[in-house]
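pasting for the record
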Amino acid sequence: MNRNIVETALGAVVLITALAFLGFALHTADAARPSGYTVTAAFTKIDGIKEGADVRVSGIKAGTVTKMSLDDKYRAVLTLDLDNNIKLPVDSAALVTSSGLLGEKFISLEPGGDDKMLKNHDKITMTQSPPGLEQLLGQVIFSMSHSGDNKSGDASSGAAGATPASSPAMPTAPKAEGSSE
């Protein structure tokens, strides 16, 4: 009987110590939700972005991606939790980018020039999704093949380096996806 009481008391002490350590760790790591404001941004694709991904302004962490969902037009809607100290104009843009070829993906915010600032629960309407690897490789191959055409000066193909606008082999640059909501 005494043995059960000692074991129970020892278990309670271990549990209290573990909870105290967890509370201390959360407090010192600043893992609690930061006091800030949230904005949303809709993208056609968000390859590589996960909940918890950084939101950066000029390369400096300014917030975190806290939620991902789909809207009625099948666009990826990200909820971004931004630091209260970061004031962004309403015409700011959000881009999915990475920190190098194999680096982590994050959301980069490009401040606009408007005098009005984003407030809690506002939407960033100008967004840009990342180009696919295939599209980037296509652009490299396309530019390499046409730089050779320009050097050879082959007059039989018409204007050197010219390609019809309707050519399916010609990759297109990523475009801003401003929504008209």
